[in-house]
Amino acid sequence: MLDQVASAPALHENMTNAADVIAAGVALDAGNTRECARKLFQQASELAPSWDEPLIRLAQSYRADGHVAEAKELYIQASIRNRWRIEPLLAYGILALQSNDPHDAVGYLSRATDLDPTNHQAWHGLALALGALGLQGAALRAMANAGNLAPDILHYAITYNELRDTVDHDLILQIREPKWTTAIELCLEANAALRRGGAEEAIALLETAIDVEPDASDILALLGNAYLANQMPEMAELHLRKALLRAPENIDIANDLAVSLGRQYRFGDASDILNKLDIPANASSTILLNRATIRASAGDLAGSARDIKAATPKANDRSRLRAECSLIPYQSNATAELLLDSTRKLAATLPEDCEPLMKPSVVDPDRPLRIGLLSHSLRQHPVGWLTFAGLENLDRDAYELYCFGHFAAGDPFAQRLARRVRKWQDRITKYEAEIASNIADCNIDILIDLSGFGDNGLIGSLAYRPAPVQMKWVGSQASTTGMKRVDWFITDRWETPEGFDQYYTEQLLRLPDGYVCYSPPPTSPPVSNLPALANGHVTFGCFNNLTKLTDETLSLWGRILEQVDNAHLLLRCPQFSEDGIPERFISRAHALGVDTSRVELRGRAPHPEFIEGYKDVDIALDPFPYSGGLTTCESMFMGVPVITLAGDFFAARHSVSHLSNVGLTDCVTESPEQYIDRAVAMSSDLEALAARRARLREQMLTSPLCDAKRFGRNLGAALRYAWQDYCRNGCRA
After folding, report:
1. From CA 174, how far away is CA 183, in angstroms rounded?
2. pLDDT confidence of 16, banded at 50, 70, 90?
3. Of 2, 90, 102, 252, which is the most buried if we count CB atoms within 10 A?
4. Other Cβ atoms within 10 Å of 276 Cβ, number
5. pTM for the full model?
6. In sequence order, what are the residues at sequence separation of 6 or more whose Cβ sits closer than 8 angstroms to the Cβ of residue 83?
């Protein structure tokens, strides 16, 4: 800006000195010593009281720290000093828009466009402000001006098309529509394909656009997001890294890159990217909420809580509550009552009072039913390992399966389920109303969500009531959904004992055995001998996600190590393969009183190698409050009993269900003291522990937990019961 000398006002005789002072202030401001920088900008303003530049610099400094009111006032003063300069008008208008004051924004941005009709940024800002006021026609005209001035800017083109869809055709004919560049036209086609769920089509179009404009960061970023939509995070990472190299200050691209890494369970790498960001105080809350989730997954629960708190004042309720509901089950203070309250608040942000989208159905309690499965995780994933065996064994004459979500063509589980499915609709848009409409068009009778509210979750589409009967099962099934239009919650008597109904907004559909059916891996290592017999010491272990390892869990494990002579603790999760995370974890464990000299950390591994790691574990210790699910099944399959501490909400009782279903009720404890006592007692009788290990796989395989045909019958009977209830009573909401 220093070289942009205004032509109208006479400059103060000390402007040269003032410019030197500003230059020194800029250097300090860039080094985050803003208080000193501001004093210099103020000094420069006093040296050159007719010059607007010091005030603009001072406003920018305040703006960077989130002091919006101070920044706006300084921009006003700068515009008074130099009424011919557009920068303070544009900056003020954008701040007003970000402060949800579009009326104020329109005034200043209109002045900016009058002053310089060739400034496309001013026209773009004005379009956004007019759109926020509901003046779609005027907004479209302004956006057309921005597009004609800069036909190579992607977000201008996307915004223009979105506005174009909201106005009458006659108005469009009166507007000189922008002639977008070839690459941008391809991007618009790709964006339309993404909206209707055509991620593969979008990718092909964007690859062509990149051939035309190989260095366009916005096109690379859109391509990365298309790969994310197609459940290909590795390819998304590749293009998002290229985009970030070309636009290193773009925090939105950095955020998307972190998402792609998180989808690969590289939470440490994702956290490093987000931790390095200088997130402006007026930035979107989405980045803070995403960083909260990533930090929690990297084991930084305290940092996660700080981000949620920082995002709360400016986040829309749904985004904030979605993040909170995803993270609360991992926190040591989580309870069924707290989760019920938080999910109800989240559900209140959904359009559950809208007109139902479901098509009229034949109300016949005994007819064959169409069952819809909604999830992007219908593959080798906890959802697949715990549901497919039962789904495959549903009566084919009575139940026809339809899948809605990504189809992983190369995944053996997905291929296996596809052979049982009538139709698999994998062109899934990100818009919940459109997802619901597509489901309704298939005349689904019972829709089962297998995704939840977490990352990639699709459960929000159930708010539109696309099916007469709607259920929640597996897939981020941590607690009640809080939703009025989720009719049933698939569970069992151990997950939700009598009296727990009060913590659920759904009716509880209790299966007679466990609520899942485990599919053992087709090729698996044999159960090994008890390692303690060769090692001369007992090794406790836990292969659960790092997010589950709360301070309270670690403290309890430290007390166990104190009471069992020479005992070791083996922990394994993907995050321990990442730089910095093992060191931070060991430091935290040490501070909590754990003898870390007896702790071994292992990281990611292919699934066969991962479960083979149980050959080195004598007794598994379940984390709390969020207990193991698939990991508990895999531990038992490898002959390793799991000691769990029962909680009062769904995710706090996964292991209670699986252990009880196999007959290991003695491994279920009700208090921290019982948990410790059970671990000490079990480790003191190696002969009994070895005998248990030798028979546990067979005991598990012959139990209801692995009896697929029995589970299929139970699930079918439960689905029929829910349908018959609908035939008698109609929809709940």
Report:
1. 26
2. low
3. 90
4. 8
5. 0.86
6. 8
